[in-house]
Amino acid sequence: MKHNSRRHFLKASAALAAGTAVLRGTPVFALTDKPIVTLVPTQLMQFAYADVQLLDGPMLEQFHHNVDLFLNLPDDNLLKPFRQLAGQPAPGEDMGGWYSPSPDFDPPHNMTGYVPGHSFGQYLSGLARAYAVTGNMAVQHKVQALVAGFAPTITTKFYDGYCLPAYTFDKTNCGLIDAHQFAGDPIALAVLNKATDAVLPWLPPKALNREQMMARPHKNIAFTWDESYTLPENFYLGYQRGAGSRYRQLAQRFLEDDTYFGPLSENHNVLPGQHAYSHVNALSSAMQAYLTDSSTMHLDAARNGFRFVLEQSFATGGWGPDESFRQPDTDQLVNTLHTSHSSFETPCGAYGHFKIARYLMRVTGDSSYGDSMEAILYNTILGARPIRADGISYYYSDYNMNAKKVDYPEQWPCCSGTFPQLTADYGISSYFHNPKGIYINLYVPSRVTWRQGNARVIITQLTSYPNSGESALHLNMDRAERFSIALRIPAWAGKHTCIRVNGKLTPVALQPGTWAHLDREWKNDDRVELSIDMPLRLVPIDPQHPDTVALLHGPVALFAIDPGAANMTRQQLLAAQKVSSTSPDWEVATDQGKVRMKSFPEITNETYRLYQNT
Ligand SMILES: [Zn+2]
User: Fold this and answer.
1) Angle at 26 between CA 21 and CA 27, to 5 degrees
2) Is-contact 439 515, C-beta < 8 A?
3) Is the Cβ–Cβ distance between 71 and 16 less than 8 Å?
4) Alpha-carbon gap, residue 172 to 147, rounded angstroms
5) Among 278, 300, 469, 553, who pairs with 532 as Cys (CB 3.0-4.6 Å)?
């Protein structure tokens, strides 16, 4: 997606002027994100969806695209596989790909007809969250119509001969609890109870990994791919949101303690060989076991597990080539630069990454989780091609030495489900708060509104980040109030990073890799300007291969465009220059001529290379 940062900066300035009007109004809708069950207290708290509004920029474009696309898909099409498998009249068109039943399904060669209706719950969830962000009644109406249409199709027959019952039910569960929580759906929890009764006979007695699934009789290979170990997160959330105590018991039943969380909590890296996205997603189940049941073993498991993921990540923040984790201290990861074009499952991986990073940031207050979130944002998901109306979707980012951006051949894959959920979560990923004040996690064009002590505060953030390091916050307050504004200073930030308050340089010591706290009495019209020094730097793929490096400018990985056989030395890479003051592109002068370098979102159909052998 092409994005002119200056154009967006100017448009956002106009939106800032409009910010004063928001202060006088009252919220038009008041749904609560607050759970009804007491959770373990955390360092930081998430905002409600309605509190954060994105302003013009590529994130808002992606959010709008996804909302419009799913809002306009006919209910009959979305409900068709459920009606068909229940033996009911099923008007509407087949959506095709993974979504519609098909006799062609022959795993792993032909994935048409793979998991009928699998992503219905995620589309529902994405819409419910989008309603909570926007208050758009058409979106709420769509959510409620889909839940009402889904309810009479529920039958235990649906899962007869269905290869991934836990996988699909987990998404249905998420959609229904989000419809209840975020779109005020009056029947969603009752529908969930019925759907739970329908799936229970098809679930294993406990969470099973793929090895354990392989050891059981299976009709074909796809029957060994179910992901019962991801169920607890949404079961816990259902319990928190009032679905009843059986959901807490179900959550506890499916925690994969023996082969995954137990060893992880003792710092054993059991990731190699495991399916990547579902095991990152399972870490969020561990976080819910901590938040709901105070299990510190599960918190340790999630922290260690996520650290093991980061240790085998690419310079983009992406991980899990061919959807699988690798053995550290080997050539396995670097070899995938030659053997794979499926380097990072982008929408699903980014969704799972944002989710676990938010949990860990809430619990620990550690700003480094935000560093990893922004890497994923700028280097992966913002470069994903939009989902097409026919369901063709972007799936894998390619980090091969000879790479291209391509769509996935099947319609409506998993990544078409997580993408709308992720874009609805962009706002709540950008800011956190606690009684001391606000934490600015992402530098994105946005506005956050909340009550701090006795004051109603609106912060409008304007930024050209990450094309430059400059961001500005403008405060709109109905009375003065003392609190802290904490700014995330990325670990890679250079020594010229500085903060100005109302034009004056602050004496606050800036420690890269931590929050900079500005604790003072704030008043209406105060301004904060953050200037992050973004040095060019080289990041090796892993410690064993220090000469296989990616060039980064701040959080942004720069990909060599149509590099051919051009070789680049470390000195040449670090001497890269911007093509012009207005272009986001860079240039490296090599012995074979100039090589253009682009960020991932700027790449369209060119051949590119992330890693350079120096
Ligand atoms: Zn996916």
Assistant:
1) 110
2) yes
3) no
4) 10
5) 469
pTM of the model: 0.94
| Alpha carbon distance 460, 53 (integer Å) | 9
Distance CA 388, CA 381 (A): 16
Integer Cα distance of 204 and 201 in angstroms: 8
Helix axes 346-364, 296-311, angle to 10 degrees: 130
Ligand 1 centroid–CA 99 distance in Å is 13
CA of 297 relative to ligand 1 center, distance in Å:
29
Q: Nearest Cα to 134, choosing from 16, 35, 46, 52?
A: 52
Q: How far apart are CA 88 and CA 388, in angstroms?
A: 29
| Tokens of residue 189, six digits | 């929890």
Distance 415 CA to ligand 1 centre (A): 3
Residue 510, CB-side half-sphere exposure with 13 Å CA sphere: 22
H/E stretch holding 22 = helix 5-24
CA of 6 to the centre of ligand 1 (A): 33
pLDDT tens for 473-497 read 999 999 999 999 999 999 999 999 9
Per-residue confidence (pLDDT) for residue 246, from 0 to 100: 97
pLDDT at 12: 41
> Residue 547 — φ and ψ, nearest 5°?
-95, -5
The length of the chain, given as a count of residues: 614
With residue 346 as reference, give the H or E element that holds it. helix 346-364
Contact indicator for 172, 195 with CB cutoff of 8 Å? yes
Q: Where are the alpha helices (DSSP H) in 73-164?
A: 75-85, 120-134, 137-150
Tokens of 484: 């802290």
Domain range summary for the chain, segments of one domain joined by +? 5-43+431-531, 536-613
Ranges of H-type helices in 365-409? 368-379
Ligand 1: centre distance to CA 180 (Å)? 25
* DSSP state letter for 400: S
Q: Which CATH number is associated with domain 5-43+431-531?
A: 2.60.40
- Ion ligand 1: protein residues whose beta carbon lies under 5 Å: 345, 348, 414-415
* Secondary structure (DSSP) of 529-541: EEE----EEEEES
Percentages of the chain per state (helix, strand, coil), in multiples of 5: 40, 20, 40
Tokens of 443: 């530098």
How many CB atoms neighbour CB 153 within 10 A? 21
Which pair of structure tokens corresponds to residue 488? 């995330």
Beta bridge partners of 559: 598
Q: Which DSSP string corresponds to 565-614?
A: T----HHHHHT-EESSSS-S-EEEEETTEEEEEE-GGG-SS--EES-EE-
Rounded to the nearest angstrom, the distance between the alpha carbon of 49 and the centre of ligand 1 is 24
Closest C-alpha among 132, 147, 211 to residue 425: 132
| Tokens 């207290």 found at | 41
Which residues of the chain fall below pLDDT 70? 1-35
- Distance separating alpha carbons of residues 325 and 307, to the nearest angstrom: 13
Q: Which of 126, 111, 125, 123 is nearest to 77 (CA)?
A: 123
